[in-house]
Amino acid sequence: MELTERFEWSGRQIAWGRAGAGPAVVFCHGTPFSSVLWQPFAAALSRDFTVYLWDMPGYGRSSKHAGHAVDFGAQADALAALLAHWGLDRPHVIAHDFGGAVSLRTHLTLGVEYASLMLVDVVAIPPSGSPFFTFVQDHPGVLAELPAYIHTAIVRAYIQGASHRGLRDDDLDALVRPWTGEEGQPAFYRQIAHYDERFLEENEQRLGRVGIPVRILWGACDAWIPADVARRLQRLIPGAELSLIDAAGHLVHYDAPVPLMDEIRAWLR
User: Fold this and answer.
1) Whole-number Cα distances in Å, 200 to 55, 97, 112, 119, 208
2) How confident is the model at residue 133 (pLDDT cuts 50, 70, 90)?
C-alpha cells in the first residue's frame, strides 16, 4: 500500500494513501517512524475496511521544511485537517508512539470524534523522552552537522533498540531511510528538538473526559516506554481496556505481528 496522494496544508505536503471499502480506519505513526510501520496491517484490513495511511509533516514522505513546526500541536491540527479533507465522520483510529498523543489531542482539544481509539505503545502522558532525547535537545544544531555515515549509524542503533527481538536489515533500512540525506538528517534532529512535553500534560488533564471506546496494547518488554505507563494510562481513561503482548518491545509491529493483527481485528469487530 503506497502513499500516492498529497494534501496541501499550511504550506506543507502531507503524503497519504487509501485502500479498501467499509468502515474507515485511520492509522497514526510515531517518532522516529512513518506509515511504513502500519502498511502490512492496513493492507490486510483493506479487505473489510477503508484504511487510511499518512506520514505526519516532517516524517516519511511528507515535506520536511525547516521552518515548519512538527510538535504535538501542529500534528494534531494536521490530523484534524486531513480527516476533514477525507470527509470522515467518527473513524476508528489506531495510533502508535507519538501518534497516541496526536490522536488524543485531536479528540480532546480539537473536538474530533472517533468511533474507537486503539493506543499501541504510545507516548501519551508525561514523563517521556530518553537520555538520547535530552542530549539531542541540548545539541540539535551540532548533531545535524555530523558526517552522514556517523548520523546513519546513530539512527540505526537508536531504532534497532526499539525492537525486543531485533529488526531485519530490510525493515531497519525502511525505517532509517527517511532520516538520511540533506533533507532527512536535519529533520531527524529537528523533530526531537521540537518535542514539547507541555502537550502531554494537557492531554493528561483531559483524559477523564474520554467517552469513546479505548483499547491499549503494549509490548510487555517495551524498553522505551515501560508497561507501567500503560497501566497508568488505563487508570486515567474511563473504561479503557489493556492487553500486554508477550515477547514484544516498542516495535510490536515487528516483534509480534500476528498477535497485534489478531488484537486489531478483534477490536474492530
Assistant:
1) 21, 12, 18, 15, 14
2) confident
